[in-house]
C-alpha cells in the first residue's frame, strides 16, 4: 500500500535523524600512547599542555614554562584523537569543546576552514601580520639569519587582541576593533613605513563610515602663504609717485627688529628724494655689460612652467591674492584664450561645455584618460592616490605547504593567506580589497574561504585588464 | 689723522663719527690690514671684532660703517681711503627691520617667510645689499636662504653657475659666506643671454629645490629667501627677472637705482608683490670689463687655492673613457632647419656629448651628480668643479686640477665657456 507524501517524508526524516545519531555516537579509536593531555584555561582562552606530542612541530607555542595551544588547534587535535582536554578535572567531549573553544575571535567558519586545510596536510597558523622581512632581505637571504626573538611575544599579543574583539558586538564596533587590533600589532613589529599608514587610515575611515565623507588628499609642495599687509609694514621706497620732489620720512624701527649694535639715528630718517633721483639714474644708465649689446634674441616662453606670458595683459585682468592663485588664473586665462581662438570655440558658449579642451589633444591616451569619469584601479598602481579604504577585514590564517623543515620560530613567508567569509555575508567591496592589498603586498596570494554550512570553497580575486582596440600613442 | 711711518707699511688711523662710513680700495698686488681699535663697526653687516686684524688682498673694495662711532687702523697701500657722511644705510636698515617684522608674522602664523629679490643694473651694489640683509637676518638668529643667480660673478661657487645656500652664520669679513654644501647648478656661460632658455629652466628647478628645503626646514621657511640677480635688466633680462619673481613667488622686489625698471616691474608684477626703489650707495665703484674678467678669474682661483692661498688642489690624470663630457645647448639654428615638430628652444637645453680634443684644455668643468643615461642631467646639481689643464691625445688622457684627490666622484662632466689658466 503506497504511503501518503506526508508519511513518506516523515519516515525519511526519522531515518536521517537516527543515522545522524549513530554517526555522532560512533566511538573513535586511538592509541592511548598518542593521546596527550591538556588543560583548558577560559580566562586566556588557551589550552595548557601537560605533555607534548608530534603535533607541537607546527602547532602551539611556549608561554613562560608552559606549552600552550590555540583553541582551534586543540579542537582539531581532539577531533583526530591526539589530545584530551580537561576542565575542572573532567575530560571535555567534542560537543563541549565546540561550544567552549569557539568564540568571536575564532568563529565556526574559521574553524571549519582550519580543520579542512589541516586535514589536507597544510600547516595553518594564525595570521601574524605583514612580513617584517622585506623582499630585498629575502633576496639576499638575510631572513635565514634573523632570529625572531619577539616571535612568541607576537603570538601572545595576537591572542590578547582576539580577546578584546570578542567582547564587542558584531557591528561597526567589531570593525573598529579589528582596525585597532591592527594598530596594536603593527607598532610592535618592525615593518616598513608603508604598512603603518593603513591602520591609521582604517580607523579614520571607520569613524567616517557613517558620515560618508572622504578625507582630502594633501597637496605636495604647498607652503602656506602669509598675507602681508604692506600698509603696516613700512618699506622705504623712493620711487613712490607722491614723493617725487619731497622728502621721505622713515619711521625708526622698533628695537626688537634690529640686531644688537645697530641703531638708527632719528636724524637720518629724513631723506631728500629729489637729490637722490637726480644724481642716481643717469650715471649708470644702461651699462649692460653682460648683455653684450645684443637684444635681438628671439625668445618665446611656450615651454616653461612658470612663465608669465605678456605679463601686463595678464595683470590687468587677473585678480588674485597670492602667487598660486595668480598662476592658476593665468593658466586658466591662457587655456580659455586658446579655446576661444580655436575653430571649436563656439562649443563653449552655451551652458553645457565639452569635457575636454583642444589643448588636451596631445595623444589619444591622454584624451581617453580625461574622458574617463570612473577611474580604473590597477593592481600595482601607486596607492597614495586612492583614499578609498572603507574598513578592513581580518585575515585569519597564514598557510604553509607541508614541510618537514618547517620551523615555528622562523616560518618564513606564508604560501597563502586566508580570509574567511560566510556565504550569507556580502562579498567584500573595492575599498576593503584595496585595504587588504596594502596590508599584504608581498606577493603572497590571498584566498577567500567561503563557508556555507560546512561546505568550503576557495576563491581568489584577480586583476585583469581588458584589451583595448585603440592606439594610445 | 695721525700717520706713523713704521717699518715698510704705512699705518693710518681713522676716527669715525657715528653714522659714517670709511671706504677704501686695496691697490692691486698689495695687501691691507684693518684693525678696529675702539668702538663698534661693521663691514657690510658683519661686526668687526675689537683688536682683531683682518687682511685684504689686492683689488678688494670695502666700506666700514659705524652706528656709534669708532676708530680703525689701516696698514698697507690703499688706493683711496675716505670717510663718507651720506649713506643710504638707514634705508637698508629700515628694509631689514620691515623684513624682520614680516618674519615675526610668519613665525606666529606658521606660514612662509618673506622672499626678497634684489634687482638693478650692473655695479649698483646688489651683492652687497644682499649680503647686508642676510647678515642682519643671521644676527637676529634667523637662517635665511641665499639664492645667487648672478652667473657673471658667482658669489656661491664659481662664475657660470647659479646656486642656493642656507646662511646660518654672518659672512666672514675677509672671506664672505662660508659655503658648506651649497646647491649649485651648472649654467656654463658668463652671461644669461648666451642661453636664456637654460637660464630660466635652471631658475625654475632651483626654485623647486628651495621650496622643498623650506618644507622640511621650518626655520629656513620662516626666515625667507634673499635672491641676488644678474645685472641684465633689458629685454630678455627683464623677462628673466619677471620669470624669477614668479618661480620663487617673491613678496618684495628691491630695485636699486633704476627708476625705469622700477616702473616696469610695478606695472607687470601682480599687486600682492611689493616693489620698492632704493638708491645705490655712493661707495659703489664701477668696474671696467677688464676688472670683471680679472675678478672672475680670481673667483675660480679662489675655489681651487683658497682665499688666502691656503688650499692645495690635486693634479692627476684621467683616461678619456673614464669620463663623459657634455655641453648643454646645441648651436642655434633657424626654425626652417628643424625637423617637423621640434622647436629651437628644445635644442638649447639639449645635452650634447663632446669628443675629446685640444679645445678642452684650460676649461672649467662641473662634475654633475647625475649618472650617464639619466634624462635630467641638465637639471641635476653639481658636486664640484675641475679644470682640464692638459689633453694628451696619444695617451688618451686628461690632466686635471681637482680640489680632492682621485678618483672623481662621478663620471659625467659638463663643460663651461669660462676658461682658466692655472698659472701661479
Automatic annotation (TrEMBL), chain A:
Cellular component, GO annotation: tRNA-intron endonuclease complex
Gene name per UniProt: LOC106152184
Family: Belongs to the SEN54 family.
Transmembrane segments: none
Keyword tRNA processing on entry: yes
Keyword Cell wall biogenesis/degradation attached: no
Coiled coil: none
Chain intervals for the UniProt region annotation (Disordered): 187-206, 278-297
Top-level taxon: Eukaryota
UniProt xrefs under InterPro entries: tRNA_splic_suSen54 (IPR024337), tRNA_splic_suSen54_N (IPR024336)
Lineage: Eukaryota, Metazoa, Spiralia, Lophotrochozoa, Brachiopoda
Example of a GO biological process term: tRNA-type intron splice site recognition and cleavage
Pfam families (UniProt xref): tRNA_int_end_N2
Keywords per UniProt: Endonuclease, Hydrolase, Nuclease, tRNA processing
Domain tRNA-splicing endonuclease subunit Sen54 N-terminal: 22-87
Protein name per its UniProtKB record: tRNA-splicing endonuclease subunit Sen54
Gene Ontology molecular functions: endonuclease activity
From TrEMBL, chain B:
Gene3D superfamilies linked to this entry: Clp1, DNA binding domain, P-loop containing nucleotide triphosphate hydrolases, Pre-mRNA cleavage complex subunit Clp1, C-terminal domain
Pfam families: Clp1 (PF06807), CLP1_N (PF16573), CLP1_P (PF16575)
Boundaries of every Clp1 N-terminal domain copy: 15-106
SUPFAM superfamilies: P-loop containing nucleoside triphosphate hydrolases (SSF52540)
Localization terms from the record: Nucleus
GO biological process entries: brain development; mRNA 3'-end processing; tRNA splicing, via endonucleolytic cleavage and ligation
Similarity-based family: Belongs to the Clp1 family. Clp1 subfamily.
Name listed for the protein in its UniProt record: Protein CLP1 homolog
